[in-house]
Amino acid sequence: MRQILASLVATLFLALGTPSQAQDNPIEAVINDQITAFLADDFDTAFTYASPNIRQLFGSAQRFGQMVRDGYPMVHRPAEVRMLEQRPLGAGIDQRVLIRDAAGAVHLLSYMMIETPQGWQINGVQILRAPEIGV
Predict the structure, then answer these.
(1) pLDDT digits (tens, 9 = 90+) for 23-74
(2) Which residue, 11, 15, 59, 111, shows the most beta carbons closer than 10 Å to its own?
(3) pTM for the full model?
(4) Which fold has domain 2-128?
């Protein structure tokens, strides 16, 4: 059942316009994989994409999941995810991500990424002011 759900989530993710090149970009792949885990309510897996600092701060996947549900509902249940530009940020990378939530609101987020012995991991996420979108 879990594999079927994961396949459905992956299909949904692709249908939402996630760029296929994301898997060629390890930073984008980490973010996409974590969001896929959130969509499946698999907070144990989602927690593995967090940096050691974030894992230490929250202590458990359950507490981390609660923080995401409460503080980042657009990340927990996005309707659309688009990767934008990457910029150097100290020893890491700032990955900008545009997320449209289920109600249609657009959110701009900054993912602070760091490279660890386990690969790229998410060291924090900041909600930024979304750009104005006109018709």
Answers:
(1) 589 999 999 999 999 999 999 999 999 999 999 999 999 999 999 999 999 9
(2) 111
(3) 0.80
(4) Nuclear Transport Factor 2; Chain: A, (3.10.450)
